[in-house]
Amino acid sequence: MAAFEALFMEFSPRIRAYLLKLTRNNQAAEDLMQETMLAIWRKAGQFDPDRGKASAWIFTIARNIWIDAWRKQKRPAFDPDDPALVPAAEPEAGDMLELKQSGAALHAALKTLPEEQVELIRLSFFEEDSHSTIAARTGLPIGTVKSRIRLAFGRLRTALEEIK
Q1: Is Transcription one of the keywords UniProt gives this record (predicted)?
Q2: Which of 56, 70, 71, 91 is a good FRET partner for 111, with 20 to 30 A between their CA atoms?
Q3: pLDDT for residue 79 is more than 80
């Protein structure tokens, strides 16, 4: 306790002056100096004289505490009106009806395709497998997978145009 008191008497004015130069605010420098001295008290067991002087260690702690305080101060305030935090608007009834009709038309068009092509489309677009993964799963060459998917799209396009 006596050693810390001596350390406090020796370093607190110097730390306060250093922090005053950084903050340009008397109260902030005083608060950060107190916080620095508490950190030194808590971390005293971590000091290694082989790694450098005690004063360098102490002023490093003071600088890090100042940086932390500065970062907290620079953090933007929470804005509840931020567009990223506003939920998406509910779609209108007409849009929902159109989406439902489009989905039904797609399902009807998929029923016109051979099962093999439906499976390739399901793997590619609903399970999001790559063409090489689909080729490995089905045992088909990758070129065949690509051409069958392209053929399925052509047939889907034709079927959807007929449904409309």
Answers
A1: yes
A2: 91
A3: no
